[in-house]
Design brief:
Layout: E1 46-47, E2 51-57, E3 68-74, E4 78-86, E5 90-98, E6 102-111, E7 116-123, E8 128-136, E9 140-150, H1 154-157, E10 169-170
Parallel strand pairs: 1-3
Antiparallel strand pairs: 2-9, 3-8, 4-7, 4-9, 5-6, 5-8, 6-10
Length: 179
């Protein structure tokens, strides 16, 4: 809870000849429609599923929110796709972590306002909770959409890690194919 004070003063011995109207409203800044701030770590992540979300990074002088973590449950051979849009120009880092909290896939790059960046990953392990984190160098709002879809198993597609190449940063040997 915050208290805001507004004072209107006149200069000594000069009449006040202005009229003022103030309108104060509270803007909801909860992450991912949760009613609260997404945690800064795995333990305080907000659990989400498929859907469209809005969130905020408010650090610096206005707050201490540097990163947002989200928890998403994936079945084996389920693909997650995250389309993220920054409201501000920023250096953006979006990361997917698998169990046991190891980085599985990451996008780190500059993003222009309203530009969309897509991050996709397939869970080739048994069902597990994975984590998605967002880290912006500039305070502000970002939007993201999470899509989950079942895909063919690795054995059905006869693909191995050695047959798959992609740009980005993937933890080797995990059987997880980026698309």
């Amino acid at each position: 809870t915050y208290t805001t004070y507004v004072a209107v003063l006149n200069i000594k011995d000069k009449p006040l000849s202005y009229s003022f109207t103030f309108s104060i409203s509270k803007e909801e800044r909860a992450d991912a429609n949760s009613g609260k701030d997404a945690g800064e770590n795995f333990e305080n992540a907000i659990e989400i599923t498929s859907g469209k979300y809005q969130a905020w990074i408010i650090g610096g002088q206005c707050g201490n929110d540097q990163k947002d973590f989200y928890k998403i449950n994936l079945d084996k051979d389920e693909k997650i796709t995250v389309d993220a849009i920054s409201g501000e120009s920023a250096y953006l880092t979006y990361t997917i972590y698998d169990e046991p909290h190891e980085r599985a896939w990451q996008v780190r790059e500059s993003i222009d306002p309203k530009e969309t960046k897509t991050l996709s990953w397939i869970n080739r392990k048994d069902a597990q909770a994975i984590y998605f984190s967002a880290d912006l160098t500039t305070d502000g709002k970002y939007d993201f959409t999470v899509k989950l879809e079942k895909v063919a198993s690795a054995s059905e597609t006869n693909m191995t890690n050695s047959e798959t190449t992609a740009q980005g940063s993937q933890k080797p040997g995990q059987g997880c194919l980026p698309f």
